[in-house]
Amino acid sequence: MKQKLSHNKIFLSSIGMGFVVLVVILVMCIYWIRHETERLAEFNAHSLILSTPHVKSLKKDSNISRQKFKEIVRKTRLEPGRSFFESIFFGDGEEIARYKEKDGQIYDYSGYIPDGLVKFSDASSETYGIEYYKKGEKHGEAKTYYKNDRLKEEAHYRRGKLIESAEFYHDGIVRMKRNYEKLLGSEYRGNKESGIGKVYARDGKLKFEWQMLGGDYENFKKSYNSNGVLVAAVYYDKDGRIIEEK
Question: Which of 29, 44, 76, 195 lies at a C-alpha separation of 20 to 30 Å from 103?
Fold first, then answer.
């Protein structure tokens, strides 16, 4: 009788231990599923085109050829809570390069971008388009479209520098024109207050214009009212200091 009770205790003890192990495994599975769900949700929130694995670092590989990929795609996103944009390049779904960009300056570049056509999408601005690269830099034509397929901007780059561009409102009316041709090799900054530029209202009237070239050029910024009449003008010397206001 005592021997039978002993066997029963061992049996019940084994069942109890098995139950504890099962509960532990179940808890671990729930935790893993929750973690993976949150991770995937965070990834998908920033993804527009492809679902690809994250690559922590890439070494520049100049042996990557254009012939290896049928399609090159760039995805750009604004990092949550941060002031920089991150662009990731994919060749047929495989990550091949990435960089960060802030105020027009590119840094933390890794990987290699093959020469030729690259399709892109920007999650933060809800735009997409095409651009061309040469030796890892934008070179040639670039076009950006709104999500309704209307042209937002057309531009031309030379060895990574913006040469000229035209931006459009949703209805196709020109919004702004910029040109940096005369700044190449000197005081090129590529921002909206250098080079030559004009900003237009929706009715096509000129709102603002500037010419900031330095050197012996006339450097100015001018504002116009809704009737296209000049209301303010500021003139600068070659170093960007104000010399006259009207």
Answer: 44
| Residue carrying structure tokens 């922590």 | 56
Q: Give the 3-state secondary structure of residue 223.
A: strand
Give the integer Cα–Cα distance in Å for 9 and 27. Answer: 27
Which pLDDT score is estimated for 105? 82
Q: Which helix (H) or strand (E) holds 137?
A: strand 137-146
Distance between CA atoms of 60 and 111, rounded to whole angstroms?
4
The three state secondary structure string of 201-216 is CCCCCEEEEEEECCCC
| Distances from the Cα of 45 to the Cα of 33, 98, 118, 140, angstroms | 18, 19, 23, 32
Amino acid identity for residue 17 in this structure: M
Inter-residue contact 178 to 194 (CB < 8 Å) = no
Burial 192-217 (b: 16+ CB within 10 A, else e): eebbbbbbbeeeeeebebbbbbbeee
pLDDT along the chain (246 residues), means of 10: 48 54 55 44 34 37 65 88 88 93 85 94 93 94 96 95 95 95 63 84 95 89 95 91 90
pLDDT given for residue 166 in this prediction: 98
Helices and strands (H and E) in the chain: how many: 1, 15
User: In the prediction, which pLDDT does 240 show?
Assistant: 83
Q: Are strands 230-236 and 195-200 parallel, antiparallel or unpaired?
A: unpaired
Give pLDDT, residue 204.
Answer: 93
Compute the distance between CA of residue 25 and CA of residue 31 in angstroms, rounded to an integer: 10
| Region of residue 91 (phi > 0: left; psi between -120 and 50: alpha; otherwise: beta) | beta
- Say which DSSP state 79 is in: P
The residue assigned the tokens 């679902």 is 51
Among candidate residues 67, 200, 76, 177, the one with its CA nearest the CA of residue 129:
76
